[in-house]
Design a protein that fits this description.
The strands form three sheets. The chain has a four-stranded mixed sheet with strand order 7-4-9-8, sandwiched between helices. Strand 5 and strand 6 form a beta hairpin. It folds into two domains: 35 residues; 140 residues, Nucleoside Triphosphate Pyrophosphohydrolase. It is of the alpha+beta class. It contains four helices and ten strands, in the order E-E-E-E-E-E-E-H-E-E-E-H-H-H.
Length: 184
Amino acid sequence: MNFNEKTINKRNIYSGKVITLDIHNVQLTNAAIAEREIITHPGGVAVIPINKDNEIYLVKQFRKPYEAEILEIPAGKLEKGELPETCGSRELKEETGLTASKIIFLTQMYPSPGYTDEVVHIYMAEDLVEGEAARDEDEFLNVYKYKLDEAVQMIKEGIIKDAKTIIAVMMVKLLIEKQPADIA
């Protein structure tokens, strides 16, 4: 059986720089009416940079919703009309100062499908060249380098909690285990 919800009407509650919040009245499969709060987001891109020594670069920045500093792979919001690969290269340079001659698509993920339409495109960056970061004026972060196996252990220990980072680290770990000569 297929389950579907038909939007009967929607009203906007909030429109900001990054998100909009709408209330949808929907008809359920059983004909009942329900209300859904939906955040519309332009989407984002995350990049896991990995060097020839199987070291990855993570950024640590304060995240207000959690009132804590979070370890993450470099990431950012897609601009209108921007290609995900272009966004990934831009964010990598802005946050870490790194440029990469190889940007490889890994996957897409839905961070919270219960209330947002956001899609995060995840890439791996290889053949890295270090340079100067060009951070936004409201962006404060530190860059750290970890062995891939160390990052996997940090996930197991609950130190790395960010979903896009966990997905990227584990995907790269699987790729390296399957085809070690193709990654480094």
